[in-house]
Design a protein that fits this description.
With 359 residues, this protein is α+β, with helices and mostly antiparallel strands. The chain is built from 17 helices and 7 strands. Strands 1, 2, 3, 4, 5, 6 and 7 form a 7-stranded mixed β-sheet that branches.
């Protein structure tokens, strides 16, 4: 980057010592705790992660318990964090650690990279924070801070840019406090050199060393290409209720939300009349439809625009070849009460608006 980052080291660490937020995984930076917290923190705010982390550690306190828990329990603990493949990879990696590393999280950076769900950032975080090994942990916060400090207009989405920054940090990071150093840059990016809106330069301990501040270019850095527009999809979500039980099913093990429980849904936004006609054609006779309004959920590449209905079934329909039961409630659907949904079955946040009508 053609910038001597070593000048910021002492200033960053002094600032971090005084301003570091108190976080449960920092209070006890065991390898397992660091690993779980870092996976949770991907695409999720720190404040939101705190309660999830504490609940997760309370239920799955170590690698062995994580490796041996059921998928339903794992997903229930993960419910609301989204990106469920992160949880799947946690468990896959835990099983590998049990089988190949005697149940002990490897301390070697390159060994960490071999585990599912662990890239250079997470490997660097575990190595530096838990094991005091001088490896960089470059995430979005670190890229933003360091690009602004250097006044660099390099495209941060390019792997070569991240790799070069990792090497720059590896060469100058304090050998005695590598974990604190990585966390200091992350903390600065999360609380002062913020991603959205104007950075709080007047509170920054390295403002006088920041090229973007001196040139007034901090709002133009970091540089990354515009995202492609998301694909829009319309859905009709149906909350089927029968004797205070509700219909849910597992999605296929592929594509969006693969293998997760869901509420019945159809492509397209159906009117009340159109839904009523479909249900009657499928053999359902005694039911009531209530509108639950419109909702929207944004995934990374897709947007769901939804309309929801509460369908209260007065009597269980006869099971015929093309009946309601086979059309909507096929073999993968189950009927569960509110207590089981609350305690056992994880529903993605995409369905949260309509799940909230379960009483």
């Amino acid at each position: 980057m053609n910038y001597n980052y070593s000048e910021i080291n002492d200033l960053l660490l002094d600032w971090y010592d005084l301003n570091a937020r108190i976080l449960p995984w920092r209070e006890n930076p065991k390898p397992y705790y660091v690993w779980v917290s870092e996976i949770m923190l991907q695409q999720t705010r720190v404040e939101a992660v705190k309660s999830y982390f504490e609940r997760f550690i309370n239920q799955l306190p170590d690698i062995d318990s994580l490796a041996n828990t059921t998928e339903d329990k794992l997903f229930k603990l993960w419910e609301g964090l989204g990106y469920y493949n992160r949880a799947r990879n946690l468990q896959k990696a835990a099983k590998i650690i049990i089988e190949e590393y005697n149940g002990i999280m490897p301390s070697d950076y390159n060994e960490l990279l071999k585990l599912p769900g662990i890239g250079s950032y997470t490997a660097g975080a575990i190595a530096s924070i838990a094991y005091k090994i001088p490896e960089p942990a470059v995430d979005g916060n670190v890229l933003r801070v360091m690009m602004r400090v250097a006044g660099s207009f390099s495209d941060i989405t390019k792997a070569s840019v991240k790799k070069e920054l990792e090497q720059d940090i590896r060469e100058i990071m304090p050998r005695q406090r590598p974990g604190d150093y990585n966390q200091a840059i992350m903390e600065l990016g999360a609380t002062i050199c913020i991603p959205n809106g104007k950075p709080l330069c007047e509170k920054c301990p390295i403002m006088h060393l920041c090229e973007a501040f001196h040139r007034g270019t901090y709002m133009n850095i970091p540089v990354k290409p515009e995202k492609k527009p998301r694909k829009m999809e319309e859905k009709t979500v149906i909350l089927f209720e029968k004797n205070k039980e509700y219909a849910i099913r597992k999605r296929e093990n592929k594509g969006l939300l693969s293998g997760l429980w869901e509420l019945p849904n159809l492509d397209g936004k159906l009117s009340t009349l159109a839904l009523e006609e479909i249900l009657i054609k499928q053999g359902l006779e005694n039911f009531e439809i209530k509108s639950l309004g419109e909702g929207k959920h944004i995934f990374s590449h897709v947007e769901w625009h939804m309309i929801g209905y509460h369908v209260i079934i007065q009597e269980k329909p006869m099971v015929a070849e093309n009946s309601f039961e086979t059309y909507f409630i096929d073999k993968s659907y189950i009927w569960v009460n509110k207590s089981k949904i609350d305690d056992e079955y994880s529903l993605p946040t995409a369905f949260e608006k309509y799940r909230n009508f379960i009483s």
